[in-house]
Amino acid sequence: xxxxxxxxxxxxxxxxxxxxxxxxxxxxxxxxxxxxxxxxxxxxxxxxxxxxxxxxxxxxxxxxxxxxxxxxxxxxxxxxxxxxxxxxxxxxxxxxxxxxxxxxxxxxxxxxxxxxxxxxxxxxxxxxxxxxxxxxxxxxxxxxxxxxxxxxxxxxxxxxxxxxxxxxxxxxxxxxxxxxxxxxxxxxxxxxxxxxxxxxxxxxxxxxxxxxxxxxxxxxxxxxxxxxxxxxxxxxxxxxxxxxxxxxxxxxxxxxxxxxxxxxxxxxxxxxxxxxxxxxxxxxxxxxxxxxxxxxxxxxxxxxxxxxxxxxxxxxxxxxxxxxxxxxxxxxxxxxxxxxxxxxxxxxxxxxxxxxxxxxxxxxxxxxxxxxxxxxxxxxxxxxxxxxxxxxxxxxxxxxxxxxxxxxxxxxxxxxxxxxxxxxxxxxxxxxxxxxxxxxxxxxxxxxxxxxxxxxxxxxxxxxxxxxxxxxxxxxxxxxxxxxxxxxxxxxxxxxxxxxxxxxxxxxxxxxxxxxxxxxxxxxxxxxxxxxxxxxxxxxxxxxxxxxxxxxxxxxxxxxxxxxxxxxxxxxxxxxxxxxxxxxxxxxxxxxxxxxxxxxxxxxxxxxxxxxxxxxxxxxxxxxxxxxxxxxxxxxxxxxxxxxxxxxxxxxxxxxxxxxxxxxxxxxxxxxxxxxxxxxxxxxxxxxxxxxxxxxxxxxxxxxxxxxxxxxxxxxxxxxxxxxxxxxxxxxxxxxxxxxxxxxxxxxxxxxxxxxxxxxxxxxxxxxxxxxxxxxxxxxxxxxxxxxxxxxxx
Length: 794
Ligand code: ATP
Ligand code: MG
What we know:
Blueprint: H1 4-9, H2 13-20, E1 27-31, H3 37-50, E2 59-62, H4 66-80, H5 82-87, E3 89-91, H6 93-104, E4 115-116, H7 119-132, H8 134-139, H9 146-158, H10 163-175, H11 178-184, H12 194-213, E5 216-217, H13 219-232, E6 242-245, H14 253-262, E7 269-273, H15 289-296, E8 301-305, E9 307-308, H16 313-324, E10 335-336, E11 345-349, H17 352-369, E12 379-383, H18 389-398, E13 403-406, H19 415-428, H20 433-439, H21 449-462, H22 466-474, H23 486-504, H24 509-519, H25 522-529, H26 533-553, H27 555-563, H28 567-576, H29 583-594, H30 607-617, H31 625-629, E14 633-637, E15 646-651, H32 667-678, E16 681-690, E17 692-695, E18 698-701, H33 706-712, H34 715-718, H35 730-740, H36 747-760, H37 782-788
Parallel strand pairs: 1-7, 1-8, 2-3, 2-6, 4-5, 6-7, 9-10, 11-16, 12-14, 12-15, 13-14, 15-16
Antiparallel strand pairs: 17-18
Helix pairs in contact: 2-3, 3-4, 6-13, 7-9, 7-12, 10-12, 13-14, 16-32, 17-18, 17-36, 19-20, 19-23, 19-26, 19-30, 21-22, 22-23, 23-24, 24-26, 25-26, 26-27
The structure holds adenosine-5'-triphosphate and magnesium ion.
């Protein structure tokens, strides 16, 4: 185990002060990127459990992504050991709510066996409702898309509005004279008024009804019911003696409320954040929460960290110049700990293809010229939009560079993964209609839309679920429908029943998936229907791997430990609290609160259910792909890159309409997004853009991003960039080695790799004004580019 004292000795005085801040005085640590906020938060957890004797199970740590929770957990493993770390309640707000709600479901009128339903499944429900209200929509001349309806509903749920609240708001607003309505909305479009508002409120109500009938919660529900639980049952917060929140600047109203309620009993809160990195305003994040916290916890103190440990001086200087253009922001100090390094590279290309080809070639060159110190896994390409990833992916593939898209086409959104999960959801929860609709005809059982609608109608009449209708038909308990399904669906029912039996017997989810794919001949189904059946089958294997991982160290174990801390530890911790509160008192409280379920995992927590929950709350990176990702170039959106860091960051399409996005409402938020992207870089940063881009099949002119042009045209800030690619002479290599904390490769190794590279790679003199002939690399200037991309407008 790592030595906490020694690690604390490596902190700077401000960081140490933050770690050792008295637990009962609420604390805001406000600081720029790379200043060690997440590090301090992690060390503070270790400090609180080790020196302030807080039992690990009484600590509630909130991260912005599941990936961040895993990283934090990994670090704490080393400091506290596996047992103690596993007891800490750690995860995103959503994951924590799911965890508490499973256990305390009945206190908010839910059934603990709920299924977490993802965006796709929500969309299916909304599609059905929009169909149902089609005539009314036409009659009232209201246009409403599925995404529109879902988005509007999600936005009000993030504010904590129930369907009844929404209805009330609509009626109140509609009762106002037009002029007053306008000023109430400050001239902005409000979907929750007029006929649109009325119909939205109805759809919202029906949507909630469908979810409850299917015994499922969508992502917003997790927070809404979480708040309800902590608000109405003060004792739930007894589980918690210190709340810590990372990336606080991006919490929304509901999440903030949740934090306040969780901390209601203990009043001990530590948050870290950076207003300059607030990039989720579009998802209802409220930067005002910082001020609110000072009201709700009047003794709150603030601490600042001013030393950046992540980036070279020149990367930090450019990043600060970008964000400082926002005149409304509060200036902050951030000193670089590292030397200047090679200045950020700014390059322009004629078209996106050339830009992407450059990126791939440059990554290859850097790996060679760094003597192998940089590997594929050290590079990230950060995009404003997910949809831009295709060009980059194919350019990397062309060069034979392994790559992965982070939080792009998510693992759990892939067809084959969703099919299998839907089967398991149905096994777990026969009322979960979206899963039934997804798989009743997968693989094809010649059950058409009409038949499915007959089944659902029958289900509504009998007040049972569609799956139960099919089961009863197959059992001959109710008459068959038309067209008949008994024969067609007998094997479907058989599969579900076998799996249900296995699941009830506690068979591990990985084994269930194996049994499932055998039973429905899924591999054959993929081969018959999918051109890329092999890679899809790989994903099925990956899902099985993920299930095994969850089984070994996953939520079941974690939840069990969190709520049933090891007896001995429990007692020791209770002694350690210095009579502040005895073990018995705690036990009493819990008994009061939770009746006969006070200890152990809730009866609803079967391995299957916990596996499904882990899948629903996971993102791409938490599958076994994570290990392999170390050898791959990452492609990610700037939003997904929050909180993370890479030795080399490349940001393409730094141009108008992209940075800022032409669809963005808040330009300053877009500027901060570019700032977040740049500050992910440790050693090298590249910004590229093009003079034209493809839009709907046509080339149109493109212009450099206004965030950059302003700096580039100013003599004072122009020098923050260079066009020169880093030659990586020994001095440069040394700086990169220090910044990324790697040993410097021997000169001979560098020479060997460079010569190998030069033998195999002939690359163009990149850029719009590249010379026609580059003696070192051959004639690969505009002429070469023209040949490669004949349709581009040179
Ligand atoms: P962001 O705002 O981007 O989330 P952050 O403030 O959370 O950044 P961290 O990720 O905690 O910053 O730290 C950035 C990097 O600096 C990490 O690699 C971390 O290990 C390192 N670091 C932080 N403090 C120190 C220190 N005192 N000595 C050496 N390295 C440090
Ligand atoms: Mg951080």
